[in-house]
C-alpha cells in the first residue's frame, strides 16, 4: 500500500505543479494579448478549469500534510483519550462528507456532461469531475492515514505486551 500511496503522491504533486505553471502562463499570455488589443476569449474559462483542479489536488495535499485549518484550542485542554476520540470522530465525519461529495459530485458531472464550457469546445464535466476525483483522493489519503495510525497503535501495543 505504501508504494501505491507514493506513486499517487508523486503524480499528484507533479500534476499540481504543471497545472499551476499552465495557469500562470495562460493568464500571462491572455494579459499580453489583451494589452495588445487581441483579447483571448477562452483564456478565462480555461484558467478556471485548471484552477478548480489545482484547488482539489491541493486540498488533498493539505489533508495529507495536516495543513487544513483546525481549531484545536479546545481539544488541547482535553485528556489524551478524549482528544483521540474527538480526532477519530472528526475523521469519520470528514470521511462521510467526502463520500457524500464523491457521490453527488459524480451525479453533478453526469448532469453537466452535455453542457459545454462557454468559449471552449469542452464539456462542463471537465470542471465538475474535479469534485469526485479530488474527494476520492482525499478519502484515499484519509484511509492511508487511518491505516498508518492503526499500524502504529498495534506496534505500540505489541511493544507493551513484550515487556
TrEMBL record:
Q: Which UniProt keywords apply?
A: Cell inner membrane, Cell membrane, Membrane, Transmembrane, Transmembrane helix, Transport
User: Domain named Tripartite ATP-independent periplasmic transporters DctQ component: which ranges?
Assistant: 24-149
Where found, per UniProt?
Answer: Cell inner membrane
| InterPro entries linked to this entry | DctQ, TRAP_DctQ
Name of the featured protein: TRAP transporter small permease
Q: Where are the transmembrane segments?
A: 18-36, 42-63, 84-106, 126-147
Q: Which GO terms describe its cellular component?
A: plasma membrane
Amino acid at each position: 500500500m505504501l508504494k501505491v500511496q507514493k506513486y499517487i503522491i508523486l503524480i499528484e504533486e507533479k500534476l499540481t505543479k504543471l497545472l499551476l505553471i499552465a495557469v500562470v502562463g495562460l493568464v500571462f499570455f491572455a494579459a499580453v494579448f489583451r494589452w495588445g488589443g487581441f483579447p483571448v476569449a477562452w483564456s478565462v474559462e480555461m484558467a478556471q478549469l485548471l484552477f478548480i483542479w489545482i484547488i482539489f489536488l491541493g486540498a488533498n495535499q493539505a489533508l495529507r500534510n495536516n495543513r487544513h485549518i483546525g481549531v484545536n484550542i479546545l481539544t488541547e485542554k482535553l485528556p489524551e483519550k478524549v482528544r483521540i476520540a474527538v480526532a477519530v470522530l472528526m475523521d469519520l465525519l470528514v470521511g462521510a462528507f467526502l463520500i457524500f461529495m464523491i457521490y453527488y459530485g459524480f451525479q453533478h458531472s453526469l448532469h453537466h456532461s452535455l453542457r459545454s464550457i462557454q468559449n471552449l469546445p469542452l464539456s462542463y464535466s471537465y470542471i465538475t469531475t474535479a469534485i469526485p476525483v479530488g474527494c476520492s483522493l482525499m478519502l484515499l489519503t484519509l484511509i492511508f492515514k487511518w491505516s498508518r495510525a492503526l499500524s502504529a497503535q498495534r506496534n505500540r501495543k505489541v511493544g507493551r505486551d513484550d515487556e
